[in-house]
Amino acid sequence: MTDRHYKKVSDIKTPPGPVTFTMEHSQNGYRMNAICYSLKQEKNRVKFKKDYEKYMADFGLSEFEKELVRSRDWLKMIHYGVSPYVIGKMAQCFGLSFIDWGSYMRGEAPQEFIDRNVPLLKNYNPEDNDKKGEE
Amino acid sequence: MANFVGGICTSHNGALMHGWDKQLRDDPIWTPLFEGYDPVRKWIKDKKVDVLFFVFNDHISNFFFDCYPTFAIGIANEYEHADEGSGPRDLAIPYGDVPFSRYMADYLIRHEFDLTVCQEMKLDHGMMGPAPFMLDQPWPVKFVPFCVNVIQHPIPSVKRCWKLGQSVRKAIEEYPEDINVAIVGTGGLSHELQGTEFGRIELDWDNEFMDKFEYDPVSMLDWDVKEFMDRGGAESAETVMWFAMRGAMTKKVKRIHRNLYRGMLTGMGILVFEDDE
Ligand SMILES: [Fe+2]
User: Fold this and answer.
1) Is the ipTM of this complex over 0.85?
2) What is the pTM of this model?
């Protein structure tokens, strides 16, 4: 077992920028990823939403891991080793969308994020790009 | 002998599932993207493609971290759709070409690619995100799903994926049956789905990348994956899978189609190439 020497959730550092998910993250976050993965199933989400303390206890999370879930600090979870491809299922159980927990990591309100990122409504294919291609 | 007809590259993301399942073609946000795939659909039809060799990654839908393969190939007759949280999707059953899939696994393993061979595979948005945009249903083609680990580092290098493409090409050309095969590389382009820069998109880089990828892919073969992550965001590491398609093609290619769209969270590219040599 690896534990990265974390004693408290507050020990998890969250430097700016992304996390490169390595084997070390994967091993640290193994049980956290497993519980998130279990929440891909609706029947488990129902149980989690009803009483997530019980769900975590039944799942056998450590005190540290339970504390991490209670914190709902998605940025710390990511830095600890929770994969972005499963974390959303837990966030969803707390009523949060992808944009909600994503903008939380940015320290931004979801609507701010959405307003800045509206799709362009057109394809980005300047014909100029073709000049090298075909003459 | 089998006929290699060309290659397709496409981004894949969860949004594609949403857009397709809700049939959002007429939503102005979605129209350009749907239209971006129309020429791909036409090309696959015109070329009478029988089999798509589909290079993609699983997003913890079929594999979990208990056992996460670096390269895995499906050899099944039939595949299931993954449940990514809303139940399995209502899409046609994807069928495999068993003799061809086994042949490909056999060839690649004999040629230095040590694959995990799968008799069951639940296909997630890595493959079934773009597939319904590119193909009618029931599917007019059979599939060979080929998974690459691009989410737990270290992941295969650009050059490794390129060489994979080269071997896939050779294998196809030595296959004794008269079938038309195309290769699909998926993933990317720019996106970053975690950390303080969640949502980062680099559309100018995506555009530049698509140029380089078409005219001078060799210049990127020695790039570390980190180079892509720095330029296009952490999750654009999966762009390495595009090189499997490019490695299967001739150095100079004929571009049939190119499209780039800025989604909410992803720079979404589409390419169709044929050989030009
Ligand atoms: Fe992906």
Assistant:
1) yes
2) 0.95
